[in-house]
């Protein structure tokens, strides 16, 4: 069993992942911005370029999930800087400390996003070898992955998990989408034809677990379910699950743009993203279809 350091370990995905890793017998510690006497919680401050040295020296693997929430606030100039810095500066800090204190780390496994391909609605199916888009989401991921892939220069096995929209039973995107539908006020967004590359928390965390256990997994992998669904299909399927009728017209794009500004693009655009590469490793999804996900998440 391995000693694993997790950043972002108290978040929705991180807390689930930490519990999963512990259930498999791994020793898990996390980095926190809050000082505590808890022996498995180490302090770090990316603005002061500080990490508790023991967090790095004791780790055999690092799983890097930390990053400010993309959809939490409007994308002001200041917020955009926070979104980039929370990912890039934190990764650079980890790299410098690993290089200094633990260059024999067995693996560095980091989140990234399918936003790498750009927020574009198209019939293309994007794979890991495709070029990035040219919008703000792409910019975040390009800079983030550039920092992540520096770990290859230390001959450390490096894995990038480009993550889609995460569906969880504890909250997050699916709860936000389901709530108005349950209340009888659900509607597709924009034209409803935009794709939503999605994955359940369980499947996502199992990919991280596989990345720890399988030494042949290295490089970049899309973490999305095999099924391609549009916003309209998602809305209709959830409504059917809860025996609700969709009677409202689609929410117009301009309304979302007024409410959310540039951030609205993440709701109004979306492409199909391939999971073929991760499945080629032998990984099997517990929820390969939306119907499976809704049943497994008890929504």
From TrEMBL:
This is TIGR01777 family protein. Residues 4-222 form the NAD-dependent epimerase/dehydratase domain. Belongs to the NAD(P)-dependent epimerase/dehydratase family. SDR39U1 subfamily. NCBIfam families: yfcH. InterPro entries: DUF1731, Epimerase_deHydtase, NAD(P)-bd_dom_sf, SDR39U1. The lineage of its organism: Bacteria, Pseudomonadati, Bacteroidota, Flavobacteriia, Flavobacteriales. PANTHER family: EPIMERASE FAMILY PROTEIN SDR39U1, SUGAR NUCLEOTIDE EPIMERASE RELATED. Gene3D superfamilies: NAD(P)-binding Rossmann-like Domain. Residues 251-297 form the DUF1731 domain. It holds the Pfam family Epimerase. It comes from the Bacteria. It comes from Lutibacter oceani.
């Amino acid at each position: 069993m391995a000693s694993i350091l997790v950043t972002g370990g108290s978040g929705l995905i991180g807390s689930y992942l930490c519990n999963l890793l512990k259930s498999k017998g791994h020793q898990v510690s996390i980095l926190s911005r809050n000082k505590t006497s808890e022996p498995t919680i180490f302090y770090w401050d990316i603005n002061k370029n500080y990490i508790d040295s023991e967090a790095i020296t004791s780790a055999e693997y690092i799983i890097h999930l930390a990053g400010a929430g993309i959809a939490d606030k409007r994308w002001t100039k200041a917020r955009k800087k926070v979104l980039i810095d929370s990912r890039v500066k934190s990764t650079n800090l980890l790299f410098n400390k690993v290089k200094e204190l633990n260059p024999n780390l067995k693996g560095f496994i980091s989140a990234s996003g399918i936003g790498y391909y750009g927020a574009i609605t198209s019939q293309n199916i994007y794979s890991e070898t495709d070029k990035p888009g040219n919008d703000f989401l792409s910019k975040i991921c390009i800079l983030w992955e550039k920092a992540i892939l520096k770990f290859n220069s230390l001959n450390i096995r490096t894995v990038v998990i480009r993550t889609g929209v995460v569906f969880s039973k504890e909250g997050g995107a699916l709860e936000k989408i389901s709530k108005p539908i349950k209340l009888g006020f659900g509607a597709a967004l924009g034209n409803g034809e935009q794709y939503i590359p999605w994955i359940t928390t369980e499947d996502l965390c199992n990919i991280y677990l596989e990345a720890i256990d399988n030494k042949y997994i290295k490089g970049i992998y899309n973490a999305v379910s095999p099924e391609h669904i549009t916003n309209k299909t998602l809305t209709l399927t959830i409504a059917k699950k809860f025996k609700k009728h969709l009677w409202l017209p689609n929410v117009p794009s301009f309304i979302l743009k007024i409410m959310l500004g540039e951030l609205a693009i993440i709701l109004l655009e979306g492409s199909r993203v391939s999971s073929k590469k991760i499945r080629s490793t032998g990984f099997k999804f517990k929820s390969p279809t939306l119907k499976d996900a809704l049943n497994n998440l008890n929504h």
